[in-house]
Specification:
By secondary structure, the protein is α/β, with parallel strands linked by helices. It has helices at residues 12-20, 33-44, 85-90, 123-131, 135-159, 173-196, 198-210, 213-220, 224-235, 253-256, 274-284, 325-332, 340-347, 393-404, 453-470, 486-493, 545-581; strands at 23-24, 26-29, 49-52, 64-68, 71-74, 100-102, 107-110, 116-119, 258-259, 262-263, 267-269, 292-297, 303-308, 313-316, 319-321, 355-362, 385-388, 413-417, 432-439, 478-484, 529-531. It contains 17 helices and 21 strands. Strands 8-7-17-18-19-16-20 form a 7-stranded mixed sheet, sandwiched between helices. Helix 2 (33-44) runs parallel beside helix 17 (545-581) and helix 8 (213-220) runs antiparallel to helix 9 (224-235). It is globular, with a radius of gyration of 25 Å. The termini are far apart.
Amino acid sequence: MWKRRLSSCSSNATAIKLLKDKKWDALVIGGGHNGLTAAAYLARSGLSVAVLERRHLIGGAAVTEELVPGFKFSRCSYLQSLLRPSIIRELELGRHGLKLLRRNPSSFTPCLDGRYLLLGPDSELNRSEISKFSIKDAQAYPRYEKQLEKFCKLLDPLLDSPPPENLRSVSSFNDSFKDKLHKLAFWANTLRHALSLGQKGTLDFVDLLVSPASKVLNRWFECDVLKATLATDAIIGTMASVHTPGSGYVLLHHVMGETDGARGIWSHVEGGMGSVSSAIANAAREAGAHIVSKLMLEDSGSVNGVLLTEGTLVHSSVVLSNATPYKTFTELVPNGALPEEFSRAIKYSDYSSGTTKINVAVNALPQFQSCKLNHPNAGPQHMGTIHIGSESMEEIDTACQDALNGQPSRRPIIEMTIPSALDKTISPPGKHVVNLFTQYTPYKPAEGSWEDPTYRKLYAQNCFNLIDEYAPGFSSSIVDYDMLAPPDLEREFGLTGGNIFHGAMGLDSLFLMRPVKGWSDYRTPMKGLYLCGSGTHPGGGVMGAPGRNAAHVVLADLKKQAKVLWTQLNDYEQPEMSLKSL
């Protein structure tokens, strides 16, 4: 175990001594990218902040690990686009080591019949590629992207601010009045943006939010391969089918993010996704590696600090948890400390996951038999996300139904990326890192177990065999691999149920409903305890918005508390001043 804080710590003993010898202004449980982001903003506001991390390195699911000598894997998250521009700008992440590598093309779908589809930021390429399958779809595609971009502009202001949650405590008339004005301004602004769409645009937006992705895509396009390629955005990291109502909303991820100001462009990060966390940690100048056991409580039910497993008490009246809501409230908070209704809502939230991540070291690039372009090294087919087994939406649905019936998909849906095609720092010369984001895999299979090495090997080999159908010889190029099934993601990274978003991203779990109704503003029933992870608004992905928003809520609460204290001191001193005046 190791620890770094505002000053460097040379040993674990030094780190523990630093932690326990003072009362911190704020503690952050979990050194994932959201926790680091929250810590950065709090520290920049002058607070003393410590980050406590269970693992041997910071970053949570945004980490780079060299599991095979010479090969550095983005072990969980593997692409960047959603990180909020405000965070990149305000924390000056470029100066702190963040370097984004734009992908062009951004998508490649090989077909078993010998055809393929490339998509990317180049509109002429998109028109040419889609025309191979459907001229009508080639004409519709720019209009589809334009509509999604318009909807994203409507959502953008919501991402960078806390939801307008109701006041829970008795407040002064002034505070109550200010809160009502704030909510009025929020909803007026939201309504203004909605009205800018017009009635048809608003209806289209609502339709997108509540419809299955299949319905949305069938209305726009006729080509199976194009629809399936786009549909993967709607089911990524879930146990949902393309026919699941509400899955259409996640299609917005196709254009929601950006790279260096270019909307909808996903990028690799030089050095792997751990470089995102490292840049934020550098900006915050802090991070940690201690195992958190329980939160300490005062008699009033407010937070008083963190108790580490080795018995060290770390004191603070403000604690932010970057852990999942389930882990925070069922494992870190003592029993009986929370309202029963709240605990029940947290316990029965949806944490299901169908994701298994396989990180592969290979000695050669995969050669796709449908796309034999004349490139001596990496070609355009290697630059973006490679969609394997996604030639129709029905294939995706069939794979999902397998998992819902308790078995891993017989023909998994695989998103393959090869970051070493652009990033020369993560693999030996001539060799490559391959990320396989695979679906669907149930957390508890009806037959077999992820704890069984043979069962795990069979699933991995099934994925490799499927890739061989499109790129013969892929299996024989494998040097070694690392596999993370849902229980592994839970055990290794604290992702409840293996859910990469800290909880499902359905319409019943977003905005004012995330993590549960009535507690969407990062505060919790325990005074001084806040959530700052992906289980809060606006949700999962390497976005940083939950951490930034939570930090602003904490700072607002501390400012309010200081104002109340100042008023009380003035009230206390007033009689004394009156006596002196006599």
